[in-house]
Amino acid sequence: MIPNNVSPDATQRWTRRSWLQHAGLGLGALGLTHLLSRDGWLAADQGAATQHPLRARSPHFPGRAKRVIQFFLNGGPSHVDTFDPKPALAKYAGQPLPETFATERKTGAAFPSPFKFERYGESGIEVSEIFSKTAQHIDDIAVIRSMVAAVPNHEPSLMLMNCGDALQSRPSLGAWVLYGMGSENENLPGFLALCPGGLPIKDSENWQSSFLPGAYQGTYIDSQHESLGKLIENIEHPQISAAAQRRQLDLLSTWNRRHQSQQVDPRLEARIQTYELAFRMQGEAREAFDLSTETAATIEAYGTSVHGRQTLIARRLIERGVRYVQLWHGAGQPWDNHDQIETQHRKLAGEIDQPIAALLTDLKQRGLLDETLVIWGGEFGRTPTVELSGDGNPQYGRDHNHYGFSVWLAGGGIKGGTVYGATDEFGFRAQENIVTAHDLHATILHTLGFDHTRLTFRYAGRDFRLTDVHGQVLHPILS
Amino acid sequence: MFQRLLLPCRIVQLPGRRFAENRRSVGRVLPPTRQLWFAAARAMAAICGLLVTAVGLGVLGGIWPVVVLANPHPWVGTQAQEQSSQEQSVQGQLAQEQPVQDQLAHDQGPQDAVERQAAEHFFESSIRPLLQARCHDCHGAQQQAGDLRLDSRAAMLRGGQSGAAIKPGDPRGSLLMQAVHRTEGLEMPPDEPLSAEDVAALERWIENGAVWSGAEPIEPSEIERRSAEHWAFRSLGQTQTDEPLARVIDRWIESKLQTEGLARAPVADRRTLLRRLSYVATGLPPSFSQIEDFCQDADPAAYERWVDRLLATPQFGEHWARHWLDLARYSDTKGYVYDREERFWTHAWSYRDWVIDALNRDLPYDQFVRLQLAADQIASEPQDLAAMGFLTVGRRFLGVKPDIIDDRIDVVSRGLLGLTVSCARCHDHKYDAIPTADYYSLYGVMASCYEEDRSLVAPESLSAEYVAELTKRQQAYSEQHAKLRDEAAERVRQRLSDYLAAQLELERYPGELFGQLFKPDDLLPSVVHRWADYLRRSSTSGDPIFSAWHRLLMLPVAEFSVLAPTVVAELLAAEPSVVHPAIAAALRNGQLSSHKDVVRLYSEVLTAQLAALSPPNVDAASENAANDEKVTTEVENEAAAAGGGSTCGTGAVDGVTTATATATGTVARDPLFEALFFGPDSPCVVPNEPIVEIEYFVDFASCESLWRLQSEIDRWVLQGGAADRRARVLVDRPLAVEPQVFRRGSPQRKGDFVPRQFLGLLTGSERQPFQQGSGRLELANAIVAPDNPLTARVMVNRMWGHVFGQPLVSTTSDFGLRAEPPSHPELLDHLAQEFIAQGWSVKQLLRQMLLSETFRQAGAAAIDPTRRERALTVDPENRSLWHAKPRRLTIEALRDSMLATSGQLELAPAGGKAVELWAAPYARRRSVYGLVDRQFLPSLLRGFDFANPDLHIPWRSETTVAQQCLFFLNHPLVLEQAKAVVVAASEGVAADDHATRVQQLFRRILQREPSELESLEAMELLDAAAAETSVTGQLDPWEQLAQVLYSGNEFLFIE
Asked: Which of B127, B277, B804, B963 has the most A C-beta neighbours within 10 Å, making it the best mutation to test the interface with A?
């Protein structure tokens, strides 16, 4: 006889205790594997990562940094105008350099930096006037002056810097970190990319999760907005009051529990818990993005511009356990100054110098700098030679330069007041201790407690890692 | 065969890259006509007593200079080392492979963990990069000079012809150290000694036990042995039973359950059963009344009738197509493109509709595959051309061809064969018998094709206005295309000397990824490399124009002036069929003292010949591109008629003496030079192909202008509605590419020539190079050949996975040696056999799966608790299928179910252009018709584990995150459905009849009656909600209740 149309509680009335027992029976025993990618996976906890993809997990070894704030100066900030002074350019001003290299466009004579450099801090590292406030913290900063990328074009270089591969679809650094460590606050997205006014070049590929589960991709926030509804999707509920929603969730929970008692499947429990999480998230997200509780002094320190706001939000987010926050400068590629670099770079740096300095001060005061890794850089640098227009006239800007450029790191696990590597006399090409994106990634993962060769995910028959087969940890910049 | 012949001889040891390049061409397998010719050359070489190394230069017959040095170091190969300034390939794809556990035993390494870690670090930082940079080219995956590999510890211990390369702990006793010290007669690396630091590092490494870290590949012999026994590679054979397949399925399932002491769960109740069946077959729920009918139907055949009925609905194809589109990395957009290019595909939705239609008409799977790979050659209906979207809906990868092709190889090999061939892009596959050579064999197939956009409908059926405008835009494009191609070609001809000179410093001309904004007067790197390819081919095709070029440039720079006169004398003594008289004349007059002189000599000869040919006979330059096909054909024919072209055999040579005047001063028209400058394979001519194929062969402004005109066409098509269905097909090029291995995956580092052919793993010793065009159709046929052990197994396993919720082989796109073994091997084989025997009918096979008792069993809750507990201990993952596990709806099925139950879903018309699904006003079509924009994929989709449209996704991951729940709580689409379902459920019910209204909501959303308790609880919510002051625009109590029902686990998980 076929039992017809049985409604769940017709056969048995489940008490709270009986469903707990019943559910308990299945939960411990049921393997959590086989839920993720059928293409295979490695670590035993990858299955658990599926059930609770954002649950905090221990890295390979205790890392000095627990979370990351990354300033991404998209477009390519000029290293010779910021953190890599090249007095030799003045000597050659207006003359061709002895050796130049092919870049995207034609460039001409040596073009000395229009900005003054000064020594800062006990370390006496030279920094350009346009980052004079950041420079006050130079003794907490390790400047890498010998970065290289592969080609002089934005798209592949953005991908290389963010995802470790110029062309293929690969998970971003933030996605790997989230996959490896989860987040300390499940009520907020674990990896956020803030960019005011729209998307950078390559769009959300910059924070993609690629073959990692979608839960690890960065959540984009258009930080030009102030209202929460425009910041996070589906976070507001104008069509229902909080009280009504709570009632809904209570009934939902009752029915879900009863339903669960009829099944043996850990996913049901996971989803029940996640509803509660989502409910809390509505409140917590609002609170995280609400700057009204900050003191006037703090707000003044960061500045009230969009960059001041988004930098302060970043601090609030990591304070609440968010793992990775990327702060993009703006839509498109603001730092791509092919012409009039003096005015443009001065303006752009002026927008973030104060927020960066304020963040470093603030983190330090709150005792957070030691366990927060702060990263500054773009996808490449710029040529020490002046860019020429179609008719061969100088544009007073610089072309892309992937042969050598600077990034800096500060905070968790970083030896401040350090300069690592060097470009040639003119800043065209990295010459000493060359650092690739893979090396940078390996180092970042190391500060977080990962052996970059062991943070892997099996996809398409291979164990992929962020650093592919490359990557050397830069021990000299670690404290 | 040639490679075999080569092995024993180690003779010529000339440093320098020219030499290395020619050496590499030796091992190439040649097309049959050339093989004949080569056989003759080989015979001659043998007679002259020359060693067969000369084969690559056999064109020169007996005039090969005998610079033969006995190699004093038998364990060392003869390969000259090539240095590249771009050592680190940006496209380096090889990922660190997982160590094979049993090979990790390090017999003499330090035991202490910390020490061990330090040792591994030292290896990774100092030794591995050194070995990779300086040794692996000749002693690695690609080549094993002297039978020696230096890419694993085991291989180093085993050593080569001279014995072990290292003795851990004993640097002095290690051959490797003797070689790098260059003191004991061994001198390695051959080109440049290692620095003192590197030597010291190696010494320290060996001293400390030669610790190796990370992955060690499986040894080739081990791979071979295991391949021979591997379950997935065994031939399938025939089935021996008349038993219905559904019964066979149950028997195999039963038998495994018995061995584990388990039993199948009882049959599921009818509601559960029909819901499960309906979702598996169509991705949609049945209606409450359908369930009622089914429950009432006492006919034992009722279930079977439902199976047939559902498989016959159009919704079947819509649902199963989505499974296929996951594999095909389907997207309606191209991914990131530059401004100039339209970012939407014009053909994607036609491909999606074709897949739906093919599944609905139960197109046999073998034909389904063939059409997707080669419809251009076999389609009987124009509509079937749409099938080729399988290859052409991938990402654009900024137009960088090696990556576009890699994506295609991946989708074909993993998608159809369950083999991870892309792993062999940079090195031999570490776990399967897939050498890099085989990857490039397939690469050659894809590289021999260009893509082309075509309309699938007759112009008559389109509006005259649409056609007129389209034609206008196409004409504008064609005219510009012809003009710019001509200009580009002319510029190359004007700069012959520069392009020839560039051949001496190829490393200065980067690959496609390195973007530069080229002006018309710049030398284009892609054209430089086109010349290099042409010259490389000419070295083996016996082209008399460039025979002297190759011979002379092969001479070492340092000894050039000493050796050149002998070589020139030999060249001058050669037949005109070997050395072109025009070249001979120049050689006779010129003084050569360096490589640059050779370039100068060729520049002069070529320039003079070009001048004699202007205007050319072959009027390719002035042909209008509107006759695209015709142009190509004409050029080809005329060149052939004139006996020209680099593809020529001996026939070409006869004409030479008569056609070229030997008198100095005047030069007659010469068909060989004509082909060089104007022929279809000429390195000067920009191929007559769409802009998408030639963007790197023209300057920046030309490229922009052509793309803008192409985009004008695309935009007109895109805004022109769904009437003009397009296909994007691959078409074989007139001359197929002879692929070369890219060493370590870098197109800048070309290695051996390989034939276009199928995988050796699946063909064994009977492998033959492909003969027809690109070989794409032959590839397709090889994939679906009934004796291919993989194709049917892979496909039935995918179907099984979607029917039963978990596949028999969990690594659904990897059936290689590292695949998970099947849970039911005999069953898998039986299903595959039946699939082929029943004419590759997808529907027949699904039908049998759906009819099985295994499919019809209940969930775990229906099992007696004691038995269940035992089963959970024995088989917690349900691999043996002792019960039916709940399955979570995909985001598409979830959305469709909400719309279906709220009465909003529109099933007709099917097909057509993609619609936006996630922004108001909400579309009502099925989700499969929703826009998939890979560049701006809604985060909602990724949040719900939608298949990443950039990658072949064999099985979706399944995660539970807060954003999913926020969707149910707050997304306007959910709220809209809640409102709609309340309206539908209230129809004809009295407003105060709350019990009936609750009942109606349950019936619609969950297709069942509410229990008394549930009714009561629902009423409580309604009352409480009603008590709250209502605000305009907010959900009313009924809508709030409906939302709860949509949010519940019972709605999302199908039992």
From this structure: B963
